[in-house]
Amino acid sequence: MKKSLLLLCSIFLLSFVLNGCTQGESPVSSAVLSSAPESFSVVLTKEEISKEIVFRKTAAADGDIVLTGELIERIEAKHSQGPSPNGYDITFHLTEEGSKQLAEDSSEIVKEEQELSIWGKDGIITSAKMTEPITDGTFVLSGSYGEEEARQYMDQFAK
After folding, report:
1. Which of 10, 18, 87, 131 is the most exposed place for a label (fewest CB within 10 A)?
2. SS3 state of residue 87
3. 89 SS3 class
4. What is the DSSP track for 125-156?
5. Would you list the DSSP string of 57-74?
6. Residue-wise pLDDT tens for the chain (159 aa)?
7. What angle (nearest 5°) sits at the alpha carbon of residue 119, between those of residues 118 and 123?
8. Is the C-alpha dihedral spanning 97, 131, 109, 107 positive or negative?
């Protein structure tokens, strides 16, 4: 009985697949397509973040070092919650030591109307003018990045 039920199920499945397939078409094409694009989300933990990342005052390669990758707890890339819902934000979460250091240095950077730049092993990654100090240990790069650009940034931040 079990063998005949198994055989019957196999025949049914095979006929379903064969009847649903025609040349150049997939039997599940409507199930694969989606009206809402899949969003990606990437999180780098402290162990996955490159120790070569350096945050500097100004966009100059010899600018004073504000932070290093060792003071970052994690970095997240996910869909933006801000004014560009189709873009991606990259959020940095600092260690307690990193939070204190950035709170002090970012106040100075704002007063001096300087930029904060992020450097990796291959040179400058990004730079932005700071308009207010970062005092809570979390900051966001929200440049309305597309998925590919956000992925490239995350690759540069990873070991």
Report:
1. 131
2. coil
3. strand
4. EEEEE-SS---SSEEEEEEEE-HHHHHHHHHH
5. ESSSTTSPEEEEGGGEEE
6. 443 333 333 333 333 333 443 344 433 322 232 333 456 789 999 999 999 999 999 999 999 999 999 999 999 999 887 666 678 999 999 999 999 999 999 999 999 999 999 999 889 999 998 899 999 999 998 867 888 999 999 999 999
7. 140
8. negative
In the block, which residue shows the tokens 């064969």?
18
Rounded to two decimals, the pTM is 0.72
d(CA 89, CA 38): 16
